[in-house]
Design goal:
heterodimer; A: 343 residues; alpha+beta; Rossmann fold; OB fold (Dihydrolipoamide Acetyltransferase, E2P); 2 domains; six-stranded mixed beta sheet; globular; B: 303 residues; mainly alpha; MetI-like fold; two-stranded antiparallel sheet; 15 helices; disordered C terminus; transmembrane helix (chain B); cell membrane (chain B)
Chain lengths: 343, 303
């Protein structure tokens, strides 16, 4: 168990061009499930690979458990990593796969057996030990990869989109298992994903990354409710936060689709009102989405099926957002402005 | 012009369906039959020289050279004399020893050079690796019948003229390029993740290669071994050009120079010499046939 910290970490490929990771400072907490979330190409995997020692940084330092490991090879870092592909050794049985890091550490045979049984037990793969990786399903492969990561009790788990090879149904249960597993072993975990559902559902904290920078670091609820800038606001949440220009202040007003509701007839105070021109309704089972415009800006409103929709596509209606759900962003920098009243 | 009206074809009757099924089955049986016939013909064609060789080994002169006798039968009782002659009157045992020495050393040298070369070209040389690999492969295409002229100078400068060691030096010049290219195809098909995982799991890069890349590439390595070994066994031009004394000859030139004297061919002993070498190699090939084919097709598709 250990804290992972990076200081001013930078990576440039080929020595030229934009930095894939641009001077990042971030520190995990001990035993934390920290998610690096961002679109593809934002540098999240590069950051993870640098922490793992697979990619030498251009500048900056990496500390694991207070020790500078920047120039140490992966094997000297006491970490475990699960790749997107799981990277099981195809020529070895499941048992040998799990034993591999133990053999590398020259653990005595008897102790190895004990550890393998322990890890296999935690992940429920005792019955698969004799199989070869090609005889396993996607979910089983993932568990074997986790068992192999777990078996030598590393300081840190590094997980690189470990769920992206599973089908949608299996992914939901795998999310649950993975989180329970992490809680149980309480090992600091850094988890890379582009899937906000995974990030929101599993992370103790989320670091939202874009173009080599961390845009915001915080618990899921804070990321969702109080986005630090327009990138975070529109990247997290599905559908994303609506952004509407405020002509009076020259700012952007942001609000979540679920907070954009028909204005009460009597005009309650404490809500910002917008004329909403509806184009289209999308029926999604548990909820419906209304697509339309406020002025020039495209806006989405979300309704649970239990709520009747008072407006037809093609019509314009008065919609409102409670002021406490209205976020204000600088139109130029995209950064969040401190809250102030809107009339 | 009236548009053609689409008419659905009439539904087939049960009898028609049954007839079609019969036809299909007959067609399939016919196809299979033709396939086996062709395969048998090819097998006979390929086996005939081998059978002829084995047949000839045990024939007496009086049997072999009488055109009135049926050449496919033993008209005189079979004899082991020819094999005896091979070992008693020629230095066949020495030839075999030389050949094995050269073959084993060439295989070892080829592996030692081609494995690191192929690995670094696929993993470390970046985008130039592929082109370099092809360039190296092209070297293999220069025919030995041209190369032996400059190489004879090299051999002379090394002081290896008329020595079996000249072949140990020369043969890798064509086994290494081909095998490097072959192994590149293998290494390319192994995901980086697996090596990186091994490095995370506690090994150095060399350790990771040793424990993951090489075991996964065993079909490729076997192909390299068999290919280099067989090529060395049957190579003729260099052996003829660089080695003249009997004690230094390999099988391929030894028997042809010692058992063809002027226009006199010692057919039975020649055949015996060939058979004694060919049979073990054939068995070796067969033992690894599947992997061998996998090796070549993998190289072909992915290289």
């Amino acid at each position: 168990m250990a804290v992972v910290e990076v200081r001013g970490l930078t990576k440039r490929f080929d020595g030229t061009g934009a930095a894939a990771v641009d001077g990042i400072d971030i520190a995990s907490r001990d035993g934390e499930f920290l998610v690096l979330l961002g679109p593809s190409g934002c540098g999240k995997t590069t950051l993870l690979r640098m922490i793992g020692g697979l990619e030498p940084p251009t500048a900056g330092d990496i500390l694991i458990g207070g020790r500078v490991v920047t120039d140490l090879p992966p094997r000297a870092r006491q970490i475990a990593m699960v790749f997107q592909s799981y990277a099981l050794y195809p020529h070895m049985s499941v048992k040998d796969n799990i034993a591999f890091p133990l053999k590398a550490a020259n653990m005595p045979k008897a102790a190895q057996q004990e550890r393998i049984a322990w890890a296999a037990g935690i992940l429920g793969i005792d019955h698969l030990l004799g199989r070869k990786p090609r005889q396993l399903s996607g979910g089983q492969r993932q568990r074997v990869a986790l068992a192999r990561a777990l078996v030598r009790e590393p300081n840190v788990f590094l997980l690189d989109e470990p769920l992206s090879n599973l089908d949608a149904q299996r992914r939901a249960s795998a999310r649950d298992e993975l989180q329970q597993f992490q809680r149980r072993v309480a090992t600091t975990t850094i988890y890379v994903t582009h899937d906000q559902v995974e990030a929101m559902g599993m992370g103790d904290r989320i670091a939202v990354m874009e173009q080599g920078h961390i845009r915001q670091l915080g618990p899921p609820q804070e990321i969702y409710d109080e986005p630090a800038d327009t990138f975070v606001a529109t990247f997290v949440g599905s559908p994303p936060m609506n952004l509407v220009p405020d002509p009076a202040a020259g700012d952007l007003l942001g609000f979540r689709p679920e907070h954009f509701q028909p204005a009460a007839a009597d005009g309650v105070n404490g809500a910002a009102r917008f004329p909403f021109h509806v184009h289209r309704m999308e029926y999604l089972g548990a909820e419906r989405l209304l697509y339309g415009e406020v002025g020039e800006a495209k806006v989405i409103a979300r309704f649970p099926v239990t709520v009747p929709i008072p407006v037809e596509p093609g019509a314009t209606a008065e919609f409102a957002v409670p002021l406490r759900h209205l976020k204000r962003f600088d139109a130029k920098t995209g950064l969040r402005r401190p809250a102030r009243s809107v009339s | 012009m009236a548009a053609p009206v689409y008419q659905a074809p009439p539904m087939p009757t049960d009898a028609e369906i049954a007839r079609d099924v019969r036809r299909e089955k007959r067609g399939r049986i016919g196809g299979r039959g033709a396939l086996y016939l062709a395969a048998t013909a090819f097998a006979l064609f390929a086996a005939l020289p081998f059978a002829w060789m084995l047949l000839t080994v045990f024939k007496q002169n009086s049997d072999l050279y009488d055109p009135n006798l049926n050449p496919f039968l033993y008209n005189d009782p079979p004899t082991l004399q020819n094999i005896g002659y091979l070992f008693a009157q020629t230095e066949y045992a020495t030839f075999i020893r030389n050949t094995l020495l050269v073959a084993v050393l060439v295989v070892v040298i080829t592996l030692l050079a081609a494995v690191p070369a192929a690995y670094s070209l696929t993993r470390l040389a970046g985008r130039w690796g592929e082109s370099l690999g092809i360039a190296i492969f092209l070297v293999y295409l220069v025919p030995p019948t041209l190369l032996f002229i400059p190489l004879s100078r090299v051999v002379a400068d090394l002081g290896l003229r008329n020595s079996v060691w000249s072949l140990v030096v020369v043969y890798p010049s064509f086994t290494i390029p081909f095998c490097t290219w072959l192994l590149m195809g293998f290494f390319k098909s192994i995901p980086w993740d697996i090596e990186e995982q091994a490095m995370i799991d506690g090994y150095s890069r060399i350790g990771a290669i040793w424990r993951t890349v090489l075991p996964i590439s065993i079909p490729g390595l076997l192909t390299v071994v068999v290919f280099s070994f067989a090529l060395t066994m049957h190579e003729f031009v260099y052996a003829l050009a660089f080695v003249t004394s009997s004690a230094q000859k390999t099988v391929s030139i030894g028997v042809t120079t010692e058992l063809i004297r002027g226009d006199v061919y010692f057919w039975q002993s020649l055949m015996a010499a060939a058979a004694l070498v060919a049979i073990p190699i054939a068995l070796l090939y067969n033992a690894f046939l599947d992997r061998f084919i996998a090796g070549f097709t993998m190289g072909a598709v992915k290289g």
